[in-house]
Amino acid sequence: QVQLVESGGGLVQAGGSLRLSCAASGSIFGSAVMGWYRQAPGKQRELVAEITSGGATNYADSVKGRFTISRENAKNTAHLQMNSLKPEDAAVYYCRLRPLLSKSYDYWGQGTQVTVSS
After folding, report:
1. Strands (E), 1-118
2. What pLDDT does residue 30 have?
């Protein structure tokens, strides 16, 4: 069983930065797609950014140029550097681990709260 543990959330002023981390247990991390998703109250969960094992990335338009996703395969860890935060970025942020092509597994973390004050 794979477990994902997020950390790094908190309260920040608009314009500030936070760095989220997701630590994964298990041996499949190196071949999986790691993604960050977020869900604000009353809204659907949405993709923020994702990165393949080869380093290819995909970002939501709303965060392009402000957020950067990265991964350290040797440490089974992924990060989301969030700069120039806006009040609308406030949400619970979840990391997700899934295969690139199949649907053989789909793991989610418990989430970490990001609050942005205006």
Report:
1. 4-7, 10-13, 18-24, 33-39, 46-51, 57-59, 67-72, 77-82, 91-98, 107-108, 112-117
2. 67
